[in-house]
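Hello again, I could really use a second opinion on something today. I've been staring at a protein lately and its backbone has me curious. Please have a think about how the structure follows from the sequence. I owe you a coffee for this, so here goes:
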Amino acid sequence: MAQLFDVNIPAISKHLKNIFDEGGLRPNAIVSKMEMVQMEGEREVKRENKKRVA
């Protein structure tokens, strides 16, 4: 989503949090665990994160 809207990931998280807080979506209905991969220098680092998917 961040790439689609040309924003950073925290912006997407903030907007999704607002949607959940306002009751527009239920987090437990659309959250799944996914793995994020990023490069730190020459190292590939993997982290498991909860991602909201619709």
User: Anything to note?
Assistant: DSSP finds three helices and two strands in the chain. Residues 6 and 41 are 23 Å apart (CA to CA).
